[in-house]
């Protein structure tokens, strides 16, 4: 198991109305290169804070303690070396981490054609010419299986369904070839069938591009369908971490058991099938 990122003693505090809110408390966690890792927990447990800390997107009102060490192969080298510290918090940029939010409208520009938006990511980060970047955008629209990729290039976000918009947001997130894809409640605003399709899409793209996945959800069933390991958060603390089968089948913590019991009808086997639909 090679770590892609090693999070140590990470504490994040927000300052709000003159008082401090500790959103993450002394979290230590390795993200293994190439794994699909899910973060689950109730609303307010610190999942998004962890995602934002990893991506370097925390608001200026936050205070970060602890560190995140990255082990990315330098260009042209095979050895992995720590390249970023969170102690003096210098996060990686958008090239190495792709981020998908719950609301695709938050990451898509409503007045720009989607082909151009995806192409801009590739153009900015990959040093391509504009025609090359645009060709890459078209290829990505094919890969996310929009019905008519050629005309989708010129479509505006409002012309797409919610599921299609999220597909486009995912295409933009992976356009620069990130090592790590973070999906924070990326399916939570969608109905059940579309959720399963997006989960299947994420699974396929991650496999095709050899990305590491951090899948964040309050929905344990979806997390279990997609992830190899699950980390359970409560009140800003990591309470349990294990293989999906162990977390779902034999959780060590009463809190995890309670989360599972609250997830009506949870049964790991059909769930795994559910995510296999319609990538
Ligand atoms: N920008 C912010 N300013 C102040 N408090 C915040 C901010 N973002 C999140 N919080 C607080 O931090 C805690 C964790 O929130 P969050 O990471 O969004 O949890 P989750 O994603 O699991 O719902 C909550 O108490 C939330 O109210
Ligand atoms: Mg959240």
Automatic annotation (TrEMBL):
InterPro entries hit by this protein: AAA+_ATPase, ABC_Ni/Peptide_Import, ABC_transporter-like_ATP-bd, ABC_transporter-like_CS, P-loop_NTPase
Residue ranges constituting the ABC transporter domain according to the UniProt record: 7-260
Keyword line: ATP-binding, Cell inner membrane, Cell membrane, Membrane, Nucleotide-binding, Translocase, Transport
Compartments (UniProt record): Cell inner membrane
Gene3D superfamilies registered for this protein in UniProt: P-loop containing nucleotide triphosphate hydrolases
Membrane topology: Peripheral membrane protein
GO molecular function, a single term: ATP binding
Family matches, as PROSITE patterns: ABC_TRANSPORTER_1 (PS00211), ABC_TRANSPORTER_2 (PS50893)
Major location category of this protein: membrane
Pfam families according to UniProt: ABC_tran
The family this protein is said to belong to: Belongs to the ABC transporter superfamily.
PANTHER family (UniProt xref): ATPASE AAA-TYPE CORE DOMAIN-CONTAINING PROTEIN (PTHR43297:SF14), OLIGOPEPTIDE TRANSPORT ATP-BINDING PROTEIN APPD (PTHR43297)
Protein known as: ABC transporter ATP-binding protein
Native source species: Mesorhizobium newzealandense
